[in-house]
């Protein structure tokens, strides 16, 4: 479900993965998107911070800052809900254009990273099960193409 408004967007998506994995992957994506973390609670899986948006302010041309909230809630049987809320500090009621760019970017990156995270391969040298994203086997050091 996606709700646009308030100069940003609120979105929740359900994933069939362990909440701990979603939390780790989400933290990686937030770091890549240069989210400035203000509060992080690993137990509740809640991250609060700010993100610079692509939009520039009309008068100064500076990049606008948006509030960023990311949270993972565990559901039944190894699935979880990801909640992302990105919005401006001040509500701009006159703006009708969609402002969900950052949220879209987050979920795009998340899906990509998750694929890397969960996909594993067999090392051609020692036959260990390793991540598909590594260049060298962490078990035996053999190069993995
Ligand atoms: Zn190996």
From TrEMBL:
Residue span, Zinc-ribbon domain: 123-144
Pfam families: Zn_Ribbon_1
InterPro entries with a match to the protein in the record: Zinc_ribbon_dom
Protein name as it appears in the record: Zinc-ribbon domain-containing protein
Species assigned in the record: bioreactor metagenome
